[in-house]
Design brief:
The chain has about 300 residues and is α+β, with helices and mostly antiparallel strands. It has helices spanning about 5-50, 185-200, 225-235, 240-250, 250-265, 270-295; strands spanning about 50-55, 70-75, 95, 110-115, 125-130, 140-150, 155-160, 165-170, 170, 175-180, 205-210.
């Protein structure tokens, strides 16, 4: 049956439209498939780029020690992981936070530093109750112990020590702190304590670091006596590095012109001053020990 030209034209237009639609549909489907393939490849790459990281399990303050129990090992997408990521080999026993950080923070090397308080064979936990403490001092603060003479001369005895404050019946001790000290530091501190006892008007006091994570350890400046220097020089428990540092600090002229000059003003009453102050120190220590034992037994004391 013959068709007129108008019918042929309409049919051809219809077929051409259908073909065009099929081509467009195929193109769209091809593009969608390509996008899907690209998304799958991207997801695969992201999965493959996951890295093991350490995140904080709790909040930490600047200068606070970061022990391994404060860290969690997790996996994070590579693109959010810093290039200088903190890894297991970076951790040391004296690792501390440089800045305040919240729980969940991914650690990088720039966020931590070393406190300098390495655990050595001669490190001991020492209690002191003769230091003048700042009004605001809490566990974990970093401090210098300083000796101020009646003349106004001021020396750093030991530097950048992390403070532990013992609790008695659930309350922080008012006058006692615990410091981890090396043999050289113990002897140096003992020298400073005795000389502070001799010189009325002198003061052994504590100064806090403002931002211990960022601030470097100050250099100790207190020159020990000739007798103590001799003891230090013959003490096998003091490592060579510490001994050299003490010798570098030891200066006879400085001792004579400052510390010894002040000591000379109290030569007649030196023995009495030392005896009185040590008796007071021992009494306070006994009272603190008694309160501590009462806290363990659940007893109560009225202060």
């Amino acid at each position: 049956m013959a068709t007129n030209p108008m019918q042929r034209k309409a049919r051809n237009s219809f077929l051409l439209g259908m073909l065009t639609m099929l081509l467009i549909s195929a193109l769209i489907i091809g593009l969608l498939v390509m996008q899907l393939i690209n998304m799958k490849e991207k997801e695969k790459k992201e999965e493959e780029s996951y890295k093991d990281v350490y995140v904080l399990a709790q909040d930490v303050k600047s200068g606070e020690s970061i022990s391994m129990d404060k860290l969690q090992q997790m996996q994070a997408v590579g693109k959010v992981v810093p290039s200088n990521i903190f890894v297991t080999s970076d951790w040391k026993e004296d690792t501390v936070a440089k800045i305040n950080m919240g729980a969940g923070t991914i650690l990088s090397k720039e966020m931590v530093s070393l406190s300098g308080e390495k655990v050595t064979d001669d490190l001991r936990s020492q209690e002191y109750n003769m230091l003048t403490l700042p009004t605001e001092i809490v566990d974990g603060d970093y401090i210098d112990v300083r000796l101020r003479l009646p003349s106004g001369a001021d020396y750093i005895v030991v530097s950048k020590k992390s403070v532990t404050i013992p609790k008695l019946l659930g309350v922080d001790s008012e006058d006692t702190v615990i410091l981890n000290m090396t043999e050289a530091e113990i002897i140096t501190m003992s020298n400073a304590i005795v000389e502070a006892y001799i010189m009325k008007g002198s003061e052994l006091y504590v100064s806090k670091y403002v931002d211990p994570g960022m601030q470097k350890t100050s250099t100790s400046t207190y020159p020990v006596s000739a007798e103590v220097m001799g003891l230090i020089n013959s003490n096998r428990n003091i490592v060579d590095e510490a001994r050299r540092a003490l010798w570098d600090r030891y200066n006879t002229e400085q001792r004579n012109n400052s510390v010894n000059k002040e000591l000379g003003n109290f030569s007649e009453e030196a023995k009495t001053n030392v005896e009185t102050n040590i008796e007071s120190q021992i009494t306070r220590q006994k009272e603190t020990r008694k309160k501590y034992l009462e806290s363990l037994s659940g007893g109560a004391t009225t202060y």
